[in-house]
UniProtKB/TrEMBL annotation:
<protein>
    <recommendedName>
        <fullName>ATPase</fullName>
    </recommendedName>
</protein>
<dbReference type="GO" id="GO:0000731">
    <property type="term" value="P:DNA synthesis involved in DNA repair"/>
</dbReference>
<dbReference type="GO" id="GO:0006302">
    <property type="term" value="P:double-strand break repair"/>
</dbReference>
<dbReference type="Pfam" id="PF13304">
    <property type="entry name" value="AAA_21"/>
</dbReference>
<dbReference type="GO" id="GO:0005524">
    <property type="term" value="F:ATP binding"/>
</dbReference>
<dbReference type="InterPro" id="IPR041685">
    <property type="entry name" value="AAA_GajA/Old/RecF-like"/>
</dbReference>
<dbReference type="GO" id="GO:0016887">
    <property type="term" value="F:ATP hydrolysis activity"/>
</dbReference>
<dbReference type="Pfam" id="PF13175">
    <property type="entry name" value="AAA_15"/>
</dbReference>
<feature type="domain" description="Endonuclease GajA/Old nuclease/RecF-like AAA">
    <location>
        <begin position="1"/>
        <end position="48"/>
    </location>
</feature>
<dbReference type="InterPro" id="IPR014555">
    <property type="entry name" value="RecF-like"/>
</dbReference>
<dbReference type="InterPro" id="IPR027417">
    <property type="entry name" value="P-loop_NTPase"/>
</dbReference>
<dbReference type="InterPro" id="IPR003959">
    <property type="entry name" value="ATPase_AAA_core"/>
</dbReference>
<feature type="domain" description="ATPase AAA-type core">
    <location>
        <begin position="254"/>
        <end position="344"/>
    </location>
</feature>
Length: 380
């Protein structure tokens, strides 16, 4: 389980370190930095997929994604005694992302590309480090990258070897230096990171993929847009927790029963002579069933992150959704980004979630109600 997330220099997240729990809620006012924190987690997952640099380039490169304020905000500025002023940069341009957990951690540091780089929006990877345990150290580090040099520690002899000396600045050691022999630990961590799951594009509009006639095939993981909802529900019934599925549907829609057949989704409701298909469901009903299919996946990920799962849901569904999230968190770690006070209240009543409330001051996102976990960035 991930226990710490650290971000430095990304958008409004000048320097933020927060704790993560089995079920974590990220909340705050509009513009407080919730989406930036979500994107930062997703960028870490993109590293294991080999898409980090391209994703940042698509956001406009470091020039568009870096913290736009001064390196430091002094007490006098925060007290209103002096205006915010630009300062001479003391450290290098840097965007840093990292996390640690019960058994391993990872950090990456990106900087400006060289003047000769024909793709100026592509940031350059300067440093990467992966370690066992909560924090990096001489004994815990098993992979490190400095510019083009990558070193791996052999599992048996604990000796260091040079895996690469000229790794491209737009390639990560996570994707290019993991091999079953000397890079077995790196390989294992890469696969775990690739298994993280994100849902922020579950559509419920009239043209939503989930409303179309599906291809019924074995589907243990719901697609990011929910297109294979009917097949995912059928798979839960075949090899997953069908009892939990029935319970959460009945909890949200009393007297209802969810099934699927070769024609697609079928929601049986008390009083109706036939079940309703996906094309006939309200946005809120379809949204809730999409969340159920994602959260009750027979192949739960180590980490699942949901962005505003309450969208389109009636307030009466907040308590069933909170119960669904609590059930899912017993099978894997869950993080949600939300601004719904109704969902927050339902989760607080259950007592199963940790809360990160973000606030913005002088353009900088912080979590003033939390004690920041200890964190050390690998040096360039």
């Amino acid at each position: 389980m991930l226990t710490t997330l650290a971000i430095s220099g990304y958008r409004s997240l000048r320097d933020l370190t927060v704790p993560l729990d089995r079920l974590t809620i990220v909340t705050g006012a509009n513009g407080s930095g919730k989406t930036s924190l979500y994107r930062a987690l997703r960028l870490l997952a993109e590293t294991a997929q080999g898409r980090l640099v391209a994703t940042l380039a698509a956001e406009g490169g470091l020039a568009s994604t870096l913290w736009a304020g001064p390196e430091m905000i002094g007490r006098a500025v925060r007290a209103g005694l002096h205006p915010v002023q630009g300062t001479v940069r003391r450290g290098p341009v840097s965007l840093k992302l990292g996390f640690s957990g019960d058994d391993f951690g990872f950090a990456i540091d990106l900087g400006m590309p060289s003047a000769e780089n024909p793709f100026p929006h592509d940031p350059a990877i300067k440093v990467e480090a992966m370690w066992t345990g909560a924090s990096p150290g001489r004994a815990s580090l098993f992979a490190e990258r400095r510019n083009g040099l990558v070193r791996l520690r052999r599992a048996k002899s604990h000796e260091w070897r040079e895996a690469m000396t000229d790794l491209s600045p737009f390639d990560s050691m996570v994707t290019h230096c993991a091999d079953p022999q000397d890079g077995a630990e790196l390989l294992a961590m890469r696969e775990r990171m690739r298994n993280w799951r994100f849902y922020d594009a579950l559509r419920t509009d009239p043209d939503a993929p989930a409303r179309r006639r599906p291809v019924m095939t074995y589907t243990p993981v719901l697609a990011g847009d929910g297109a294979d909802l009917a097949a995912a529900i059928a798979t839960i019934r075949a090899i997953g927790d069908a009892e939990a599925l029935d319970a959460i549907v009945a909890r949200a829609f009393p007297g209802s029963y969810l099934a699927s057949d070769p024609g697609g989704l079928a929601l049986h409701q008390h009083g109706l002579l036939r079940p309703l298909g996906a094309a006939e469901l309200s946005d809120g009903t379809l949204r809730y069933l999409l969340l159920a299919a994602a959260l009750l996946s027979p192949r739960p990920p180590e980490l699942m992150v949901l962005n505003e799962p309450e969208a389109s849901l009636h307030p009466s569904l907040m308590e069933p959704l909170a119960e669904l999230l609590a059930v899912a968190s017993r099978r894997g770690q869950i993080a949600i980004v939300t601004h719904s006070e109704a969902l927050l209240a339902a989760l607080r009543t259950g007592g199963a979630a940790a809360e990160i409330r973000l606030e913005k001051s002088f353009g900088e996102t912080g979590a003033p109600d939390l004690d920041a976990p200890r964190w050390t960035w690998p040096k360039r």
